[in-house]
Amino acid sequence: MSNNNKPSALEPYKIDVPQEALDDLKDRLNKTRFFDDLDNEEEYYGISTAYLKPLVEYWADGFDWRAQEQRLNTYDQYKVEIDGTPVHFYYVRGKGPNPVPLAVHSGWPWSSGFSLPLIGPLTDPAAHGGDPADSFDVIIPDLPGFAWSTPVGRGDLNYWKIADIIHKLMTEVLGYEKYAAAGSDYGALVTSALGHKYADSIIGLHYGHDMPPGQFANERFWDLTDGAKIPEDATPELRAGLENLVSTYVSHVAVHMLDASTLTHGLNDSPIGMLAWLLRRWKKWSDKRSDFDENFPRDFILAEATAFWVNQAIGSSIRMYRNAVRYPWVPSHNRQPVVEPPAGFTFLLGDAYPPGVDTVEGRIAAFENGPTRSSFNVINVNAHMKGGHFVHYENPEAFTNDVQETFRKLR
């Protein structure tokens, strides 16, 4: 499992955006043509001009990217090429008797920045009131095609192809014989693909979302509901939950699946267009019971948006959706469960899925009795009230504690 020496070939990497790229961004922002957006004060039609305009003006004339660069450069990071694809990753060694190497995968539209709150408590639990025996070597890659893992020279990347790249990162580049993996959203699919194909190399898995491999394999791949209508006998709570699920998640899946490049032409050329598309996801998918602007400060939002903008990563990240259809996942074996390594789960109740569930007990039961349960070798399940879809960022304490709990059973 352990790798006692950092591979000598690794050269430290620092994020350092050329000033001309920042000057160009500012120039584009200052030339923004805002649209009237009539009757959208409550954001019935999506992100409103009223919400977006002050943020864009601050991005142009108040936002300090260099300060964000300094924050992002706090931890050791590297950039390598694997299978012709750049992979940027944070790599922080654990302080404890036998740290478990753990690759943490984020989703769309997340960068590695969403997972940075996990580094301290996972690598150095003693400094955070925990047991040093629970420490990990933490590896947080930007998924290839996302943020700093660019530019990609291939158009076929998807979750199971990324899993092959991550496996090489962990075993060939970093030299671990065995390792662990964690992930949420699209990163959960990467984690599942690893757990299926490379089970012999996997100590254990931990998830923020229960997503087995094979997602988007249905005939209506663009339709998150798979054509299902709300049952006529649905309770008001279930009906409201199903309507919320659709309004939260369906639009981006449909557009990403059916018109990825068409959308990208606009988003890659217009920073306000890109920001609006990303911001709608961050705002809509986060915990509705808490204050978005407080939980997602504008400097954090704009740092994430800048990472996508300066790297022209929006198109390559969006294409991951349709590529799951164009290059379908094919099982490597027929053993059951399809994802064999022991797996733990952290569910946050501020997410829109599953609809109509509003208690910790109900969330756990929905998983235990749900369609994905049989795909995993489940050893630990927890649910928490705080947080929405962005598990690593919205409730890092819960995710950290649950990861440690899962791997206590496996060390």
From TrEMBL:
Coiled coil: none annotated. The keyword Hydrolase applies. InterPro entries: AB_hydrolase_1, AB_hydrolase_fold, Epox_hydrolase-like, Epoxide_hydro_N, Epoxide_hydrolase. Residues 132-202 form the AB hydrolase-1 domain. Belongs to the peptidase S33 family. It comes from Nonomuraea africana. Residues 11-111 form the Epoxide hydrolase N-terminal domain. The keyword Hydrolase applies. Keywords: Aromatic hydrocarbons catabolism, Hydrolase. This is Pimeloyl-ACP methyl ester carboxylesterase. It holds the Pfam family EHN.
